[in-house]
């Protein structure tokens, strides 16, 4: 089959690499325009573009696929199917209808659960015990198309977004290859999603990474794992913003939420609305992440037992 591949980050590049390794005919690669990155803010090619160029594949980087000229260019590749993995651009109906077998998408959840931009993080934060990879026939709505194939992934008790991302990067490419090998049959057997069971994984916001001590300790511990490695959970102190990388749930001391119960080499224990949270790895402003013992060396005054940390200011939703 003649395949157009559309994707941008390393996760997408791993799928493109699998397609190339399996000998599929990639007639064009679509990816986001180069973005300024690094200290010098120089334009940097996406992981997908870099891989495509090493294989001498045609690369297209339109600002939008709604433009008529961009659609004519895409149509000129006469593709049998378009594979979309974390591309980042909306595909209008005209594009969805172009390839013979339409467009298929690799999504990081068991649809219809966690449609949207951040399924990995939302699943962990919510306390889900299971996630997975869904290969979906794309439709005009947000992740609403029928499912062709799903692979389940069990979440570990200490799962972070980083570790679940790696699991999905291992599950996704084989699932995609399996789908392509059986595409006509899977399309005939496709399973419509039950919209009444849908949940939405809204895009992450740095503001929601702030820890709120009025929440239960178990929720905050999941919050920290969900926001690792980006944007990283944080709390505001007079000395600056401190990022929190790792913590565990402890018994509480029946104090006001935000009360610092303990601060020593074993960790920084803070009361929550239900239970307490022991922070074991954190990051001071301008420094690398470090164990609590190293953090408190020279910064013990930042976390004084009995001190009550301020709760986040409520914002209008």
Automatic annotation (TrEMBL):
In short, the EC number is 2.1.2.9
Molecular functions per Gene Ontology: methionyl-tRNA formyltransferase activity
Has UniProt tagged this entry with the keyword Cell membrane? Answer: no
Its top-level enzyme class, in one word, is transferase
One Gene Ontology cellular component: cytosol
* Key words of the record: Protein biosynthesis, Transferase
Q: Which CDD domains match?
A: FMT_core_Met-tRNA-FMT_N, Met_tRNA_FMT_C
* Binding-site residues for (6S)-5,6,7,8-tetrahydrofolate, renumbered to this chain: 109-112
Query: Start and end of every Formyl transferase N-terminal domain?
Result: 1-179
The transmembrane segments are none
Catalysed reaction per UniProt? L-methionyl-tRNA(fMet) + (6R)-10-formyltetrahydrofolate = N-formyl-L-methionyl-tRNA(fMet) + (6S)-5,6,7,8-tetrahydrofolate + H(+)
Q: Which NCBIfam families match?
A: fmt
Protein name, entry field? Methionyl-tRNA formyltransferase
- Organism of this sequence: Pseudidiomarina planktonica
């Amino acid at each position: 089959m003649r395949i157009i591949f559309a994707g941008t980050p390393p996760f997408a590049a791993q799928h493109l690499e699998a397609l190339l390794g399996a000998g599929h005919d990639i007639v064009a690669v679509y990816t986001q325009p180069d973005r300024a990155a690094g200290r010098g803010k120089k334009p940097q090619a996406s992981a997908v573009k870099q891989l495509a160029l090493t294989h001498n594949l045609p690369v297209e980087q339109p600002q939008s696929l709604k433009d008529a000229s961009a659609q004519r260019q895409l149509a000129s590749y006469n593709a049998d199917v378009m594979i979309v993995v974390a591309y980042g651009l909306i595909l209008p109906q005209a594009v969805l209808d172009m390839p013979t077998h339409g467009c298929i998408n690799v999504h990081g959840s068991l649809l219809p659960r966690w449609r949207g931009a951040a399924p990995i993080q939302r699943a962990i934060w919510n306390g889900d015990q299971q996630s997975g990879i869904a290969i979906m026939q794309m439709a005009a709505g947000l992740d609403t198309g029928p499912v062709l194939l799903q692979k389940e992934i069990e979440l570990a008790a200490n799962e972070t977004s980083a570790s679940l991302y790696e699991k999905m990067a291992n599950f996704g490419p084989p699932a995609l290859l399996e789908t392509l090998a059986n595409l006509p049959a899977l399309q005939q057997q496709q399973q419509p999603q039950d919209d009444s069971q849908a949940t939405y994984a809204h895009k992450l916001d740095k503001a929601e990474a702030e820890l709120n001590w009025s929440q239960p300790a178990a929720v905050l511990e999941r919050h920290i794992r969900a926001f690792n490695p980006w944007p990283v959970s944080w709390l505001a102190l007079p000395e600056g913003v401190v990022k929190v990388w790792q913590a565990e749930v402890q018994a509480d001391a029946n104090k006001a939420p935000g009360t610092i119960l303990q601060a020593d080499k074993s960790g920084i224990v803070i009361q929550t609305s239900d239970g307490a949270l022991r922070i074991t790895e954190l990051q001071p402003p301008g420094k690398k992440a470090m164990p609590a013992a190293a953090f408190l060396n020279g910064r013990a005054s930042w976390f004084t037992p009995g001190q009550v940390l301020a709760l986040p200011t409520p914002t209008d939703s």
